[in-house]
Amino acid sequence: MTAVTSMTREQKKELGRIKRRSWLISYAMILPAIVFLIAFVIYPTISMFIMSLYFGNAMNPYKRFQWFKNYSVRPDFWVALRNTAEYTGMALVLVMVLSILFAQWMYKSRKLNNVAQTVFFTPHLVAGVSAGFIWSWLMSSQPYGLFNTVFNALGLSSVRWLDDSSTAMFSIVLMNTWKSVGYYCLIIMSAMKSIPTEIYESARLDGSSSIKTFFKITIPMISPQLFFLLITITTGSFKVFDSVRIMTGGGPGDATRVLSMYIYDYAFERNNTLGYACAAGILMMLMMVAVTVFDFGFVEKKVHYQ
Amino acid sequence: MAEIVFEKVGKSFGSTKVIENLDLTIEDGKFTVLVGSSGCGKTTLLRMIAGIGPATSGRILMDGKDITHQPPEKRDIAMVFQNYAIYPTMSVRENIEFGLKNKKVPKEERDRRIAEYAEIVGMTPYLDRKPSDLSGGQRQRIALARAMVKKPSVFLMDEPLSNLDAKLRAAMRVELIELQRRLGTTFVYVTHDQIEAMSMADTIVLMEKGQIQQIGSPEEIYHEPANIFSAQFIGTPPMNVLDLDGGVRFGVRPESIRMSAERMDGMALYRRGHVITREMLGAELQYKVRLSDGKTLMVRSENDRDDVEESADVWVMAPARHLHFFDADGRHIGHGGPEDLLKKVGGINE
Question: What are phi and psi of A208, to 5 degrees?
């Protein structure tokens, strides 16, 4: 005790020097991350907001300042928003349910499961654009469309996958589910593997049926990972773009025009509407923030952390 | 109430045979402890009774009824696991209630029983807490309440005290004994700890390499060990075993040995020894002694009996009734005799 209180001025100076040095080192270490964050997230967001207040195009964004005029949204914004919500809802349910089911099926170590895991995971490694192309061929209504060829061979009638406004959105969801389910499945599976076997044995001794064990024990115990999936799938689906652009281009009609397609159109395909695109981008960002805040505020209460 | 009988039971994992041709009867209403070192098959036996690791051959009977292939929930048993296997997402109440709900016990009956058993294990104030807020000892109590509330005919416990600290372990040991006396239920308890086995068991089943070495009361196991394994497993430090001629060996427990500078009369074993170490353990002293032929012995003595100094040269002696004789296969021949063997022990006659 006395050693600390009776520190000499020299010692105090030395201590201050050490403190300053470690302070400098720690900031130097996070500097790259901060620079990237400012350059690629904060600065673009601010400049997007400023652009959203102007009338202009990509060549000359700041033609005329017009306050919040761009924020009085057009009817087609609501269409895009509804499409996005539809896509997100379908993707969320489908990916969550399938990841859980596949994980439940594959988490036991069997030889078949190692193969199955690889098969499920591989699509995740395919580039989104390539996957979009492959699936638009598979789903094509032309004679080379594999799905319809198989359907016809089985005596089923053809489906107009991407060419029908009632099936187009679901077809895109299907493709993206195929692409991402292996990845999410892996996350769920590792969570399931971390549940001690004794808990399952105990549940068996307690006379719990396998359905009940699944809902009362497995699901609550993997809830942190399910919550992670909820957040990542929701925000990811909200931003869906490449597959829509490749597979339908927003059509047929406006059936698959999601928010990011809407933003892309107004930003680069039309003249002098960059402000609208930026305003929509800001609104989309605010909605994603709202959804995430809601998730953390309400849904997370149901999550069980160890 | 239930008696459990193993008939020619075997268990293999893949090509590894863990247990072969095992016969065992676990008596109704008794506290039976399966004890042995890790990998001896004791937990495997317990899991067979529970039905979560079925036997690969032979039969298991519970009150005469074949339960070999019966699913666990159909058996009238409850089990406490080493890591408690508490459901971490459920409150204490839900944990205790889970088995009853599955058995479709009516709500009032469930509440009554939960209140009763929560009181017995002293967890009433914690019923609405989550297990993660509780200590190891409290989780242990939840596991106990969860087992008891089902009112099973057989309690299975797999090293339930090994995750507790020494003080709590000693306290829980006493509580478990009391509990068994009060419920009068068959308890089957697995442990690697000989002290737990000795202090709690009505009957000890001592196992090694998938085989039963000895079945008996703690007194029988201590005083009449069936073989060298049994003699050396129970007791700290283990029994000293020395060679006689013709493969015959004899053993003497550290606590039966007397040491003194003077030669005492009326002993059967006499050796000269040199004290290598002396450990003061409180009520007792523990010595390591080297005999003139180079062999070392462990000696334990109350500290008001034979207190000798380190590096002292002493007489090492033991009376005849404390000498155990084993044949070439390690089987117990007898203690305190036979006469011809006893004579060979004698040692230095001066």
Answer: -80, 130
Kindly state whether residue A115 falls inside one of the protein's structural domains: yes
Q: Are A223 and A133 in contact (CB under 8 A)?
A: no
Structurally, chain A folds into a number of domains equal to 2
Taking every pair of Cα atoms in chain B, the longest distance, rounded to a whole number of angstroms, is: 81
What integer pLDDT is reported at residue A1 of this predicted model?
45
Is the CB of residue B77 less than 8 Å from the CB of residue B156?
A: yes
Domain membership of residue A14 as a residue range: 2-51
Residue A232 lies in a domain: yes
A11 and A123 in a common domain: no
CB contact under 8 A, B77 and A205: yes
% helix, strand, coil for chain A, step of 5 = 75, 0, 25
CATH 2.40.50.100 fits B237-345, yes or no: yes
Amino acid identity at B71: P
Residues 6 or more apart whose Cβ sits within 8 Å of residue B7: B23, B58, B59, B60, B61
Q: Are residues A182 and A41 in the same domain?
A: no
A82 and A229 share a domain? yes
> How many of the other CB atoms lie within 10 Å of CB of A22?
10
Helix A223-238 crosses helix A274-297 at what angle (to 10 degrees)? 170
Q: Judge whether A69 lies within some domain.
A: no
Q: Is the ipTM of this complex over 0.85?
A: no
Fold type of domain B4-223: Rossmann fold (3.40.50)
Which of A14, A36, A51 finishes a domain? A51
* CB contact set of B179 (below 8 Å; sequence gap of 6+): B120, B144, B148
According to DSSP, residue A136 is labeled: H
Tens digit of each residue's pLDDT (9 = 90 or more) over B308-329: 888 888 888 888 888 888 888 8
**Residue B350: predicted pLDDT:** 40
- The pLDDT tens digits for A128-154 are 888 888 888 888 777 777 887 888 888
Residues of A in contact with B87 (CB under 8 A): 199, 202-203, 216-217
Looking at the predicted structure, is the pLDDT value of residue B349 above 60? no
Query: Do residues A122 and A245 share a domain?
Result: yes
Q: Are residues A169 and A242 in the same domain?
A: yes
Across residues A168-184, what is the average pLDDT? 89
Interchain contact, B88 vs A212, CB within 8 Å: no
Percent of chain A's residues with pLDDT above 90: 21
Same domain, A31 and A158: no
Q: Tell me which residues of chain A, numbers 197 to 216, contact chain B at a CB-CB cutoff of 8 Å.
A: 198-199, 201-209, 212, 216
Residue B194: helix, strand or coil by DSSP?
Answer: helix
Residue A65 maps to a domain = no
pLDDT recorded at residue B239: 92
Neighboring chain B residues of A199 at a CB cutoff of 8 Å: 85-88
CB contact (8 A) between residue A202 and residue B87: yes
Distances (CA, A) of B275 to A51, A177, B254, B258, B267: 93, 77, 14, 13, 20
Q: Which residues of B touch A192 (CB under 8 A)?
A: none
In this structure, the answer to whether residues A37 and A119 fall within a common structural domain is: no
The answer on pLDDT for A97 being more than 90 is: yes
Tell me whether residues A205 and B52 touch, CB distance under 8 A.
yes
Mean pLDDT of B35-57: 87
* Band of residue B98 on the pLDDT scale cut at 50, 70, 90: very high
Which sequence spans correspond to the domains of chain B? 4-223, 237-345
Q: Does residue B266 come out as left (phi exceeding 0), alpha (psi in the -120 to 50 range) or beta?
A: left
**pLDDT higher than 50, residue A184:** yes
Residues in chain A: 306
Same domain, residue pair A143 and A43? no
